Amino acid sequence: MSRPLAPGAPEVPHDHPDAPETDLRPIADAVAEHGAAGFVAVGDRFADDLRYLSRFGGPDRDYAVVVTPDRAALTAPGLFDEQAHREFVDGAPGDGIAREVRTEKQGDPAGVRGAAVLDDLRNDAGDPDSQTVLTPASIPHDAALYLEDAGYDLASTTAVADARERKTEAELACLRRVQAVTCRGMARAEAVLATAEPAGDDLLFDGEPLTTERLRREVDVEMARHGIRSAGNTVIGAGQTAADLHYTGIDHVSPGETVLLDVSPRGPHGYYGDLTRTFAVASEGGWERRAFVAVERAHGTALDHVEAGVTAGTVHEEAAAELTAHGFRIDSPEIGFTHGVGHGVGVSLHEGPSLRADTPLEPGNVVTIEPGVYDADTGGVRIEDLVAVTENGYERLATYPVRFTPVPPA
Amino acid sequence: MSRPLAPGAPEVPHDHPDAPETDLRPIADAVAEHGAAGFVAVGDRFADDLRYLSRFGGPDRDYAVVVTPDRAALTAPGLFDEQAHREFVDGAPGDGIAREVRTEKQGDPAGVRGAAVLDDLRNDAGDPDSQTVLTPASIPHDAALYLEDAGYDLASTTAVADARERKTEAELACLRRVQAVTCRGMARAEAVLATAEPAGDDLLFDGEPLTTERLRREVDVEMARHGIRSAGNTVIGAGQTAADLHYTGIDHVSPGETVLLDVSPRGPHGYYGDLTRTFAVASEGGWERRAFVAVERAHGTALDHVEAGVTAGTVHEEAAAELTAHGFRIDSPEIGFTHGVGHGVGVSLHEGPSLRADTPLEPGNVVTIEPGVYDADTGGVRIEDLVAVTENGYERLATYPVRFTPVPPA
Fold it and tell me: How does B106-141 read in b/e, with b if 16+ C-beta sit within 10 Å?
């Protein structure tokens, strides 16, 4: 029971890709390099670092992942033992790290359990004299205190965030499918906009004035058909609310104004898509058209600079220069180009690398390219694609046409 | 373009309720009682405590909420100033707490910004001599260290978790609508099961063998039509995978086996629904039927005991006694009734109160009632409703029939 889509949306395979496996070697190497006893992370299934490290979609309660130079353990409630084995242990990659699930001490806090498991694992691996444990800086404070109570000194590490910036082929497969479904959601919204009828200040669709909420439901239903869910952030603004970076409210859509749709759903293994298009129905030109032309050029210019080895911040600077050349401000937090041109995407919607960083882009980085200009009195225009950095340029993870005037289904 | 539903699903109003307002008085009172300088919480828009305290659907980056006995502040990036005002300041309840948004020091970590804002607010309110700051125990460790660097001693507080257990009428309105939509998702799955045709080991639907993933997409699409999104945890298992508490994988559905659907989507203001039903198509009786009868009785018995003032754990004990009487084990983590009979639901899917606690139920608690029995070799049966505790009993937040054999659309 498909609904009509605007032309140009990709076909999407029915099945989800397999869950990626996580190479824990970079974490184990960080432990070895620091001469630490091990690494401990604590969080629940909503914590993206834990999701990445364990691939465990388990309970809402906190659990711990412990890594030493050659072993790794996940603490889980006994109820989730089988699931934890399936997701964390079975099919682990050939990274030389022996994985296990530990269900003892179930009533204790995850920090206590993590410390106890580390005491145990380090007998076989890790520096026997070290009392240092590496953790992400944002480990819950109570877990940090439990580790300190167990005799460990904490040192923060960026090893997990660094590893997450370089996607594997299995991760790219997840990102490609979710982004393709994102394109289909956009194509559904474009079809609705293209077939809506101007009537005074309204656009009529299904006999009712079209709202951003109706568009949002159309987008989210199309994605759900393919097993991809809105992450609660299907941003759709019209006119003044299109100038709001993250508008998820209810606004009427009027002829002529910019309609900005920024769609970033999440796939079953936690990977996000991220796609923005901006349309105007029955536009008379003016600011909306000028802004669209400028942003489309900036988008192309930014993409032209994406390549392994290029300093990330260059991509932002080039987009900014193009927008300046078109007469838009880049120096204000309120008007013009007010944000960075892009960010990494993975199991978090925002992760490294930032396209304002002074570090070089690496193959396997997945970043948004999303220049935009805003005027709170008038509207906003943003165009965004999701690309993987390659040795010689980039791969667009899914393609969808860039159009100012929405095109109806064929 | 609605799809046929099994009979008995509630009608759902088109519009979402308004966002609830948070009474910060219990947090401010905790500050005053402890003679503390203030309260600080740090997290991003995915942190449920922050969502509750601020109602701010802002950036993925960490931000801080600071509360003193009569003032409260939200630190936000300048880009989100307008949204933060709209969501945190405008329409604040009459709790006597003056709210403001602070955008200074944008580049600094949220813990640094929280400490600076607290320094400022405490000049006007709070104990001028105290260096104690109250925080949730799970505040990110780096934020805790920044607060300590700023001269504060940390003391953990359960004030936020405690406040969240007592829902306001506006919160109940959110929960009712999301639960009603959850029922419609279930009714769509029941309709699919009722119209699928047994063919050997398969159930054919749309000419293809029915899978848990197909059922999941049908449920999620129906909910998306009403603006409610799957939170990535539409649990559907069949046969052995029905014995898996949180099965979200792909399994074939066969005639006779139990099909367990546990649906817990999230509404636009962050509130969850939670509903479980278990069906069997063309059942020949046996374990599946006996388990269903026992669980249905336990569900009714548990509900009969829900009332303000009753010790929460009583509800669990009564359900367990009923299941014991039907010959099911309650003492194993692997077979029979392996989990608690219920938990609180709000902006987290699992929050207080637990129905194993020795504290009395209070009016405004919203809890699941979800007895179940499992046999990893055969299947699982669980029946779950979401109820609000009242002075004299409970209100089911939305109703949906309990049926073993799925019923087709009228």
Answer: eeebbbbbbbbbbeebbeebbbeebebbbbbbbbbb
Can you tell me the distance from the alpha carbon of B65 to that of B58, in angstroms, rounded to the nearest whole number? 13
Structure tokens at A35: 């001469």
| Burial status of residue A48 (CB atoms within 10 A of its CB: 0-12, 13-18, 19 or more) | buried
Contact list, A250 vs chain B (CB under 8 Å): 15-16
Q: What is the mean pLDDT of residues A118-122?
A: 91
Residue numbers of B between 346 and 375 with CB closer than 8 Å to A: 348-350
Cα A112 to Cα A119: distance, rounded to the nearest angstrom: 11
Residue B174, both tokens? 């959110």
Q: 3-class DSSP state for residue A192?
A: helix
Phi, psi of B209 (to 5 degrees): -60, 130
Q: Closest residue of B to A156, CA-based?
A: B142
For chain B, the average pLDDT equals: 95
- pLDDT at residue number B399: 98
CATH numbers and ranges of domains, chain A: 25-164 (3.40.350.10), 169-396 (3.90.230.10)
C-alpha A351/C-alpha A158 separation (Å) is 12
Q: What percent of chain B clears pLDDT 70, i.e. is strictly above it? A: 99
* Lowest model confidence (mean pLDDT) among A325-339, A350-364, B71-85, B169-183: B71-85
pLDDT digits (tens, 9 = 90+) for A324-337: 999 999 999 889 99
Counting every residue written for chain B, the total comes to: 410
| Integer Cα distance of B72 and B57 in angstroms | 17
